[in-house]
Amino acid sequence: MKNKTAIFGIIAALLIIGSTMAGIIISNQENNNSLPKEELVSYFAETASTKFINSIGQPIEGISPPMFLDLFPNLREQDLDGVQTALGFYKYENNQLVYKESGPQIHSAAYAITEEGFETLLDNLAKRFNITLKSKNSVDTIMDKLYEEPPGSKELSFRTIEKDTYNLLTLRSQRLVTSQTEWASLWARMQQTDGLPSNVDFNENMVIAVFQGQKPTSGYEIEITKIIERDNEIEVRVKETSPGPNCAADTVITSPHHIVELKKSNKTVKFIFEQEIVYCN
């Protein structure tokens, strides 16, 4: 009897694996099917916009082309040449990206990228990456390449000073601290206790802190996941986690934060946020 049960269990497992593999194969085949250009553009616009919203948030005035530069490390200003907006277009000339108005900028969404703009951007990227636009897979390949680190980029090491779920700062914010005076002032606003959690040599190092703001329950978290140095800037990637509607969370006020120390730099610091919702059964 035990042998029969074991055999049935193996068969069931093989059936599950087989159906899963079949689903993956069918999905891959569907994504590789040739599609009309307008469907590829719509898929590209939806994918790029979703990634932007999940990472940075939903802008009230719509997504303007330069906003994508803050999200995709391998997107260049040249890629935005000719990209149309609601009331104008972007032009790359004299080694810089400039906005050309086609009429009075009568509303706040004037700079928002249009469907035609997404088509231009997709064509520019396909040309640079030498990719033939045929299927969803070709669009996915372009999206993957946009996340590749350009030559000359390097990941920086950092040390966590403190990562906790409570402080006295109630607003979502980011801080770059480059002096002992700033460090002492920030810590005093965060805590009710005297003293600093760590001595920092600000002749050699600097502090970066991210605060998620006051939250009504547990289950929230903010974390600096990666810091990347480029030719003209330091990019700080931050992951913010929130509990889903079905998650059991304690009804307690929290204020998650993460503070790190790294080598001092005079380059501009840019923060890139990724939003993640944890779903519970």
In short:
The protein is an alpha+beta fold. Helices cover 31% and strands 26% of the residues. A hairpin with a 2-residue loop joins strand 1 and strand 2 (88-93).
Name its key features:
2 domains; alpha+beta; 4-stranded mixed β-sheet; single chain; 281 residues
Question: What proportion strand?
Answer: 25-35%
Tally of structural domains: 2
Q: Which regions are unreliable across 5 or more consecutive residues at pLDDT < 50? A: none
Q: How many beta-strand segments? A: 11
- In percent, how helical is the residue content? 25-40%
Rg (C-alpha, Å): 24 Å
What's the pLDDT, averaged over the residues? 85
Distance between the ends: 35 Å
Q: How are helices and strands ordered from N to C?
A: HHEEEHHEEEHEEEEE
Strand order of the largest sheet: 4-8-9-11
Helix count, DSSP H or I runs of 4 or more residues: 5
Largest sheet composition: 4 strands, mixed
Task: Decide which structural class fits the backbone.
Answer: alpha+beta
Q: What's the overall geometry?
A: globular
